[in-house]
Amino acid sequence: MPAFEESLRKLETIVEQLEKGDLSLEDSLKLFEEGVGLSTLCKQELEAAEGKVQMLIKQRDGSLKAEPFSTEK
Known about the structure:
By secondary structure, the chain is α+β, with helices and mostly antiparallel strands. The chain has one domain. 62% of the residues lie in helices and 14% in strands. A two-stranded antiparallel ribbon has the order 1-2. Helix 1 (4-20) runs antiparallel to helix 2. The longest helix is centred in the middle third of the chain and has 28 residues, at 25-52. The relative contact order is 0.13. The mean pLDDT is 86.
């Protein structure tokens, strides 16, 4: 499985190629499908990383306590 950064670079390259508009329909569809797969992979890796992020909260006694990061408000 490719690393996140590698997947993201490949996805950016695919977007650039598709934006040029000089590919055949068949080639465009193949690249689009590959891009969707890479996008899904990147999203999954980001969600996994988000689950690992923790915040350090300073307690009243001056000590630090780790708490899970939450995106909910």
